[in-house]
Write a structure and sequence with these properties.
The complex is a heterodimer. Chain A is of the alpha/beta class. Chain A contains 18 helices and 22 strands. The longest helix of chain A has 21 residues. Chain B has one domain: ABC transporter involved in vitamin B12 uptake, BtuC, CATH 1.10.3470. The chains are: A alpha/beta, B mainly alpha.
């Protein structure tokens, strides 16, 4: 056990600007050996910049960094790693054609005298590592065969294997379901008992409060406070992060959500009906309905079918024999384009890959699905495009300087609002959200919740797939839970609670409520 | 997808074996058309004439594996070819050493330009191709013979076979070294490789240098088969080497495939040339056949190499994670 009060990493007056945006105004922070220290902040607060600087991906403009009393530079990922800083990123950094073990030890290979990689040693070390961590992963498996969650665990294993002085977890549990996240977090203590400092970045507030020793809050590129985790509550952290705005927004959502729940007890007209045959990869035929004014939740452990069902409804995955009816009219066609034309808009999870067109202006991203709306005789009317985009940005509260700025320059939450805006411009009757709020800060989330509620109040409906159970419970009047490629429960009314959803996710069946 | 699991823990996609099935089929077709085709001496001869393309395809394959491409292949071979013929008067040893050094240097230049200046390989190597072709014409404006007799016996008899065996063994070794794994990592996901601490510049330069060396060997074997120098001798190799590498199962976006496959691809192209010849069709059809094959191979690798692509409709753009 190392002396718990020994200081390891110290940041002094670290500053960083991107053009005119000041990401880190002046950050001074010290981390102690053997502690789990959470840095909390909205997206755009400078949190990711801080992580990037420490891992050597971005360079600081000014300020000092010292590790164990020695100044460090963090000029490249290799330098940071050599200094003992390991980072687990939210984005996965695996090479599909290599095996898991080869990936885990990539960049630090041992070889025998022939120069050939010692794969036996590699696999043995990988087995030992997975045993120690309690992960059920086989190092011999090609990385291309692993699921997102398995890859994220392996990312952690890789950083763990480097025996770092400082381990940074940047939203590293976002793709994990709760038991997996718990397995990962349980391993953090093994590291801290050896004197490693863990810097934890997460949006899961409950998780943060539970695992952290200390919590620092970062607002607008400045550290607002650093406190012992035992002395803070969820509410006080939220207030600190978001000032006073949050309470009102949250209350509104909770109130409206409550009203919605009440309302669904009354019979409402069915807006959307869908039957997906078992042949699309399910254990039995899947039937999903949505009434007007309803937000229907889809839940399940990673890879249990809920995401696939949503993608099939959105036309993103093929399923022969599927029947969809929206507002009493059958939805034909097999592509997202056909679905959009019929009034179904799918908002994907991977914002950067499937959501936004990087490098293009916000306005162009907004009108992408509804170009006829801003065109005349096939010509895009630039002024109209900008006016439409500005209106939508104001309506959704997108924080930006101009709709002409590239979408990449917005924070994640604002990017997602733009994607939502793109969907709303098509005036759909049914919105499909596929874990679209993953990795977005609390304020933006709450604002998006409010827009969803407004959207459904106008007579439309939302199907919401989410890995965060509290999100489902807060928003949804009905939650369809998947287990093992089948619907294990359809929860309504008072049954929509954390325990029931969790039970159903783990396969406890319940007859669908009438 | 059907997979074979080997003892080493590597799994082989069945689609990777397609090229060998095609290879065997072509050997049979050739034998039917020309019964003495299967005799060892003839096989050695066919292999010998295919050596320039085999080396060039291995060179191209290495570069495609790191998600790059070399459109200068043909010009590099031409330039080295005319250098050998011009320098042979000053001693064979000197000429061969300089030729090999020139090949490596040209590979390194391509590597430096694409890595340090971050120019897209497709443009940078196209530009370089023009430079090397121009230099080749400057060194030797018109074709010329004059290589000593022994030079033409380098690939005589069973030697091509042994060279091939040596190449395959060297590749089996190299692909299992640290540098080999780094090469795959860069090809599959350069960003991930960088973040994992893989030395990007060093690995890329190494790959381009090896590719340059292989191109020099391609030029030397071309010199041996033709017995002279021609500033346009290598021109056809650029397209052929890309076709061979992709036919051989090297993924066009890098990161998966094997040089052994590229070699098999090169032999397949050579055998196709043979078939075209035996059937009495005009040699002009070769170009048509190569081009169509390349398109076919690319569309096949798109369908079989990418599980997501088979899952989704083909109109959907490819996605990477």
């Amino acid at each position: 056990m190392t002396d718990a009060s020994a200081t390891t990493l110290v940041l002094q007056n670290v500053m960083k600007s991107y053009g005119s945006t000041r990401a880190l105004r002046d950050v001074s922070l010290s981390f102690e050996a053997g502690e789990i220290h959470t840095v909390l902040g909205e997206n755009g607060s400078g949190k990711s910049t801080l992580v990037k600087i420490l891992s050597g991906i971005a360079s600081k403009d000014s300020g000092e960094l010292t590790l164990d009393g020695r100044p460090i530079t963090c000029t490249s990922p290799t330098v940071s790693r050599a200094d003992g800083i390991a980072t687990v990123f939210q984005e996965l950094t695996f090479v599909p054609s290599l095996t898991l073990a080869e990936n885990v030890f990539l960049g630090s290979y041992k070889r025998h005298w022939t120069g050939v990689l010692d794969s036996r040693l590699l696999n043995r070390r990988c087995d030992e590592l997975m045993d120690e961590l309690g992960f059920d992963l086989d190092g011999r498996q090609p990385a291309s065969e692993l699921s997102l969650a398995q890859l994220q665990l392996a990312e952690f294993a890789r950083a763990y294997a480097r025996e770092p002085r400082v381990l940074i977890l940047d939203e590293a549990t976002s793709a994990l379901d709760q038991p997996e996240a718990a397995a990962l977090i349980g391993n953090l203590r093994k590291l801290t008992s050896r004197g490693t400092t863990v810097i934890f970045v997460s949006h899961r507030l409950d998780e943060v409060i539970e695992v952290s020793d200390r919590i620092s809050t970062l607002v607008d590129g400045r550290i607002v406070s650093t406190r012992q985790a035992g002395s803070v509550s969820r509410e006080s952290l939220l207030n600190e992060l978001l000032g006073n705005t949050i309470d009102s927004v949250r209350d509104v959502v909770q109130e409206t959500a409550a009203i919605l729940k009440e309302a669904t007890h009354e019979a409402k007209t069915v807006l959307f009906e869908c039957e997906i045959p078992a042949s699309a990869g399910f254990r039995s035929d899947i039937r999903i309905t949505a009434r007007r004014g309803e937000i229907v939740g889809l839940a399940g452990l990673q890879g249990h079918g809920q995401k696939r069902a949503l993608r099939i409804i959105g036309g993103d995955l093929p399923a022969s024999g599927m029947r969809r009816t929206l507002a009493d009219r059958p939805v034909t066609g097999r592509s997202p384009r056909d679905a959009i034309a019929a009034g179904i808009y799918y908002i994907p999870e991977e914002r950067k890959i499937e959501g936004i067109v990087t490098g293009h202006p916000v306005a162009a991203n907004l009108v992408l699905s509804s170009l006829p709306l801003v065109s005349r005789w096939g010509w895009l009317r630039r002024a109209l495009e900008h006016r439409v985009a500005e209106e939508m940005c104001t309506r959704l509260g997108v924080r930006l300087a101009s709709v002409r700025q590239p979408i990449d320059s917005l924070s994640g939450g604002n990017q997602q609002k733009v994607v939502l805006g793109r969907g709303l411009l098509c005036e759909p009757q049914l919105l499909l959200l596929d874990d679209s709020m993953r990795g977005i800060d609390v304020r933006a989330k709450n604002e998006i919740y409010q827009h969803l509620v407004d959207f459904t109040e106008a007579g439309a409906a939302v199907l919401l797939n989410s890995t965060e159970i509290p999100e489902l419970i807060r928003l949804c009047s009905r939650v369809i839970v998947f287990h093992d490629q089948d619907v294990s429960a359809e929860l309504t009314g008072d049954d929509v609670n954390e325990a029931a959803v969790l039970r159903a996710m783990f396969g406890q069946r319940k007859a669908p409520a009438a | 997808m059907t997979k074979l699991r080997t003892s080493g823990g590597y799994s082989i996609r069945l689609s990777d074996l397609t090229i060998y099935v095609v290879l065997i089929a072509l050997v049979i077709i050739n034998t039917v058309l020309q019964p003495n085709f299967i005799e060892p001496l003839n096989l050695y001869y066919v292999l010998g004439t295919a050596m320039p393309l085999i080396f060039a395809s291995a060179a191209q394959g290495m570069v495609i594996l790191i998600s790059s491409i070399d459109l200068a292949t043909g010009s590099v071979v031409s330039l080295v070819n005319v250098l050998v013929v011009t320098l042979i008067g000053r001693g064979s040893f000197v000429a061969i050493c300089l030729a090999i050094l020139a090949g490596i240097a040209m590979g390194l230049i391509a590597g430096l330009i694409t890595t340090l200046l971050r120019l897209p390989a497709i443009i940078a190597t196209l530009a370089l191709s023009s430079v090397w072709a121009g230099l080749a014409l400057y060194v030797l404006p018109t074709p010329k013979g004059g290589l000593p007799d022994w030079f033409q016996t380098v690939l005589a008899g069973s030697r091509p076979l042994w060279i091939l065996v040596g190449m395959i063994l060297l590749w089996q070794w190299f692909s299992r070294t640290k540098q080999g794994k780094h090469m795959y990592a860069i090809g599959a996901n350069e960003n991930a490789a960088y973040m994992s601490g893989v030395p990007i510049l060093k690995t890329r330069l190494l790959v381009f240098a090896i590719s340059g060396l292989l191109l020099a060997l391609s030029a030397l074997s071309l010199s041996a088969t033709t017995g002279g120098g021609d500033p346009l001798s290598g021109t056809a190799l650029t397209l052929q080497s890309i076709a061979a590498a992709v036919l051989g199962g090297i993924h066009f976006k890098g990161g998966s495939g094997s040089i052994v496959g590229a070699i098999a691809g090169a032999i397949v192209l050579a055998l196709i040339t043979n078939v075209v010849y035996y059937t009495g069709a005009s040699a002009f059809y070769q170009g048509v056949v190569y081009g169509l094959l390349l398109i076919l191979a690319l569309s096949l690798s798109r369908l079989t190499g990418d599980r997501k692509a088979t899952f989704r409709r083909s109109l959907k753009p490819r996605m990477s994670i």
